[in-house]
Amino acid sequence: MKLPSIVCYVIWCSKIVLAESRGSTRTSPTYYKKGPLQTITGAEISSDANDSVVNYSSNWAGVILNPPSSDKPFTSVSGTFAVPAPSVPSGQPDGKYTSSVWLGIDGVNNTNAILQAGIDITITKAGDQAGYVFGAFYEWYPNYAVDFTSFSLTAGDVIAIDITTTSSTSGVVILENVTTGQSISQSVSAPSSSALVRGTSAEWIVENFEGLGAALNFSDFGSVVFENCAAGTTSESWGISDASLVRMKTLGGSILTDVEILGSSEARINYIQ
């Protein structure tokens, strides 16, 4: 578990977000936690143009893939995406706005654990100024996220992530900044005997996550396109053609995101408010 600390915002703009500003990398740890899928009770289940099942959640938006059978759990998940340039949602007051882009294993059918890795996006608005930072992380829920503080990120960088479990209590996370060539590999282990990864789902997600035990203000992340999406068992690899979609929706009924599967290994998530 990480202790709370202050994040230093070093890139500032004269407007809410300038197109040429590319943000900076988070250099101090934070007290953030991603969590399991929170389905909105009574949400409709419909089909999009690709006949994908669509659910609604208060914290996740993206693509969820179940394994081919219960005796063939997922042991790996991978994908790439470009770091988005965030903004403060229109008409919102001064403050901090966040979102997280990640991929992982479990968190839907098995809510006791999630092994995940990705990037956090934080934008702070003060009057007519706003600055944003990025932070790369891995997390074995229910532990808090752990920062890769030396992993540099700017808007537009292409990030590749590969997560592999070697058992229900251990695994390896690999992050690569394809644009800069920087990569990092991290061995990970379950935080407790009850936080076992079961491989019951793989997911590619934008999340409205928690800080200090409460959901934070959700940032306008623009658009995230996951490419090269794959989930593997010990003997096979699967694309996302048969995945289900989850769109983010407030408890008040406002839909915040749109999600679309673009191909067998590609999906797009848009902020639509």
TrEMBL record:
Keyword set, alphabetical order: Signal
Gene3D superfamilies: Peptidase G1 (2.60.120.700)
One BP term from GO: proteolysis
Catalytic residues in the record: 207
Keyword Phosphoprotein annotated: no
SUPFAM superfamilies the record matches: Concanavalin A-like lectins/glucanases
Extent of the signal sequence: 1-19
InterPro entries reported for this sequence: ConA-like_dom_sf (IPR013320), Peptidase_G1 (IPR000250), Peptidase_G1_sf (IPR038656)
Single GO MF annotation: glutamic-type endopeptidase activity
PANTHER family named among the record's database cross-references: ASPERGILLOPEPSIN, PUTAITVE (AFU_ORTHOLOGUE AFUA_7G01200) (PTHR37536:SF1), PUTATIVE (AFU_ORTHOLOGUE AFUA_3G02970)-RELATED (PTHR37536)
Name under which the protein is recorded: Uncharacterized protein
Organism: Coleophoma crateriformis
